[in-house]
Amino acid sequence: MKTPECDLETGVCAPAPVPQEPGASAPTEAAEEIVYVGDPMCSWCWGIAPNLQQLHEFGHKNAIPFRLVVGGLRPGGGDAWNRQFKQFLEHHWREIATMTGQEFRYQLLERESFDYDTEPACRAVVAARPLAPENEMDFFYAVQRRFYVDNEDPKTVEFYRPICAELDIDYSVFAERFDSDDVRAETLEEFRLNRSWGVTGYPTVFVRVGARHHPLARGYATFDQMRDDLIRAVPRLS
To answer: Among 53, 78, 94, 190, which is most buried by a count of CB atoms within 10 Å?
Structure first.
């Protein structure tokens, strides 16, 4: 797999392709919903996280549901863990930290080996979703922090034990779901779904009003930018 593409000017990380099958599920039929497509191991998704927290809260106050769809930035990983790849990661992490103020640490880059496979982190979000639906975004943010700040490995189920404890999720039930074929299939379906929508980079945020999609962010955006676009797209907020 080639080195991922992350653009510092647009704040977009481009995903790897996944096998497509017909029949991907459509968005829910709520009159309005904010949809966030992101990956816990996408550096720009970590950069935009505080702004999305504000958008999530703004949507909640205005009775607009917030839907998270896991992106699948690098499902399967497979990149050589060599000097070039580590330099690529460090360069982008430092640039994003400077631009956004988000904390990154770099001990991960000292490991002798690491597979940058983002599927397990996405699968963990899907596994946890029905166990604590009201805390879905908190779980997502906790996975991001444990990876980018604590530099732990999201591919191991033990990575999620402290997150489950923090959010009062039954770890044994989570661990069983994390390793289940059904959750693996559901995760892949979300990868296919967002690609079927034409999503070509993360983070992507849009608001659906009826059958129409109004973009709020393709790449990094401030809360003010997303809020203002949301207000323009949803007439009752004006």
So the answer is: 190
